[in-house]
Amino acid sequence: MAIDPSSMREWGKMLLTYKFALDEVSTKLNILNEELHFIQNYNPIEHMKTRIKSPESIRDKLIRKGLAVTIDNAVNHIRDISGIRVICSFSTDIYRMYEMISKQQDVTVLEVKDYVANPKPNGYQSLHLIILVPVFLTDRMEQVPVEIQIRTIAMDFWASLEHKIYYKFNAQVPHEIGLQLKDTADLIASLDKRMFALNEEVQKYRLDE
Ligand code: 0O2
């Protein structure tokens, strides 16, 4: 089922609101990162990546959910139209960013999925949040959902490769490859722990200087 071309302007208008929400959340995260840099000379965020789901991808998700392809269904049933991936240095930074963003007065946390504390069976690690942020438009205010995925550089490295493998095998990853992926995810988790410990060690040297 295709999106009716005559409704493309309406879809564009709807997606613009999601872009504004994404702009707001990016600004919030940049402010936190810059302030922490000023106060502690430390940037918890390595980089961020934002994306708005395309109408085609929204359509596919609605169809997967067994829903009609309408703007109303997209707004009411899809909460990751706006997505931001926040890549941190260490796993402790993940929870630090989560705490700071969730404490903000205009932010409502709708859902938290902690795949860092509880990795998915394939090894995937990341902290997923769905938050609502208010977007003030010319004639109204809308509370818009944004999905935030927060993870370390190492977790992101694993997830990007796993994503490619998943699509290469059309979602049917051979058992042996799956086992190896899980094994590398465990290595990534232990690497994150060692890098954190190393960084703590380096901080001590700094204090002694
Ligand atoms: P895209 O293009 O990245 O957006 P829901 O969105 O709630 O209906 P689900 O699966 O319950 O679906 O949500 P969840 O667990 O929060 O995961 C959503 C997103 O997390 C996915 O988005 C991926 O980006 C990422 N993700 C989840 N599991 C894995 C995984 O095993 N490997 C990798 N590499 N990424 C994962 P989309 O919609 O799949 O795609």
Automatic annotation (TrEMBL):
List, alphabetically, the CDD domains matched: NT_Rel-Spo_like (cd05399)
Protein name as it appears in the record: GTP pyrophosphokinase family protein
What domain of life does the UniProt record list for this protein's source?
Bacteria
Question: A single GO BP annotation from the record?
Answer: guanosine tetraphosphate metabolic process
Q: What is a single Pfam family found in this protein's UniProt entry?
A: RelA_SpoT
The chain positions of domain RelA/SpoT read 50-173
- Which pathway does UniProt place it in? Purine metabolism; ppGpp biosynthesis; ppGpp from GTP: step 1/2
Recorded hits in SUPFAM superfamilies, A to Z, give: Nucleotidyltransferase
Span of the signal peptide = none
Which InterPro entries does the record cross-reference, listed alphabetically? GTP_Pyrophosphokinase (IPR052366), NT_sf (IPR043519), RelA_SpoT (IPR007685)
Q: Please tell me the species this chain comes from.
A: Cohnella ginsengisoli
SMART domains membership: RelA_SpoT
